[in-house]
Specification:
single chain, 188 residues, mainly alpha, 2 strands
């Protein structure tokens, strides 16, 4: 019985991979920079920048792993981390993206109707009428540290493969002297 070998990807397929990895690296770098902003700027969960930076981190990190109509998501090997802590934060980020940030999952974003006179939390005045409480959850600072580290693990791996593809696709080619838009054809 002979073992079948996988056919070599076409030039167009390699260019598609280059595109996906390049855009992914950009998104992951944005997520990492946003983690730095959170860690350097946000002093509490009630800080005015916490929620937008939290959502921005989750969106930027998760985007490369999600499929889209044009190029699809990154292959699962990119979400394989040697360190358990990084695998766990990846899972948490993707779960947060699906249930809270990109979508409002019924199991995450519950809504409670609060009766008039209800005291929402210690030290607060009673509610003066019927109101609503929308549940959510938050990442403590350590999760931004873990996310920063996951990005730090991914960026060099992505860069290595990007450089391999650039060398394979373009080092031996006669490129035009002006910038050339990357397309997915088998041409330059």
């Amino acid at each position: 019985m002979t073992k079948r070998t996988k056919p070599e990807p076409s030039r167009g397929q390699k260019k598609l991979e280059l595109y996906k990895l390049s855009v992914a690296r950009s998104d992951i770098a944005i997520a990492q920079r946003t983690c730095t902003l959170v860690l350097d700027t946000v002093t509490s969960l009630s800080h005015e920048l916490y929620q937008p930076l939290f959502h921005s981190t989750v969106i930027a990190y998760g985007r490369p792993f999600e499929g889209n109509k044009t190029t699809g998501g990154l292959p699962s090997r990119w979400s394989n981390f040697k360190e358990v802590r990084l695998r766990e934060i990846h899972k948490k980020l993707m779960k947060t993206r699906h249930g809270l940030v990109a979508h409002s999952g019924l199991d995450v974003r519950t809504v409670d109707v609060l009766p008039s006179g209800h005291v929402p939390s210690s030290g607060m005045a009673p509610m003066s009428g019927v109101s609503l409480k929308i549940a959510s959850y938050y990442f403590p600072q350590v999760m931004f540290v873990d996310t920063f580290d996951a990005c730090g693990d991914l960026i060099p791996r992505l860069t290595q493969r990007i450089n391999e593809l650039l060398e394979e696709l373009y080092e031996s080619q006669g490129l035009p002297e002006t910038p050339t838009r990357l397309d997915f054809s088998d041409g330059v």
